[in-house]
Give the backbone structure.
Amino acid sequence: MNNEYIIDEMTEDDLDEVAEIEATSFPVPWSRDLFLRELQHDYSHNLVARWLDGESKRVAGYVVFWDVKDEIHLLDLAVHTDFRRRGIAKTFLKRVIEAGLQMGCKRIFLDVRESNEEALRLYRHFRFKEIGLRERYYKDGENAIVMSTKLTSNLLV
Ligand SMILES: CC(C)(COP(=O)(O)OP(=O)(O)OC[C@H]1O[C@@H](n2cnc3c(N)ncnc32)[C@H](O)[C@@H]1OP(=O)(O)O)[C@@H](O)C(=O)NCCC(=O)NCCS
């Protein structure tokens, strides 16, 4: 399969597919309604990757991030199991970085489950550093690692 996907704005029509990916990606998933609410906030940015296969398009993944004053907060990111390890998450991170730079933001912050090795590797690739621990942060009792990276265009190379 070639890497044929585009990054696009999330719309309400995407939400069934987004919620399905979410449900298979996280132990305590966000609901469809929660994504719907995100689409209504002006500080919330919601992108999808659309996998192009002839005439058909599937949602292959999504990212949700907020701009809060001069910070970007990355709230949710997942890629459908059929489309993982094809660079889609890296493309999302680059889009988030570009958006943050355009808005004049200084840093990106996020929380990640302590056991999520794939995500930790992804974020370290973009020079995120561990800056804190939220004990028993998730509903199932797992700790969250707080990570942050300084926003510079060097992150895109
Ligand atoms: C984490 C996740 C978003 C990565 O998506 P992806 O599109 O497969 O990631 P990419 O192909 O862009 O890979 C980017 C980097 O992430 C790391 N990575 C991704 N999957 C990995 C795996 N299975 N094992 C080890 N490292 C992995 C690697 O560093 C990889 O770079 P490389 O391929 O050059 O080694 C995806 O696995 C996912 O949706 N997981 C469930 C939801 C989740 O954990 N989201 C993050 C919440 S904080």
Notes: The helical segments are 15-25, 32-39, 88-102, 117-125. The radius of gyration is 15 Å. The pocket of coenzyme A is lined by residues 25, 77-79, 84-90, 112, 116, 118-119, 121-122, 125 (CB under 6 Å).
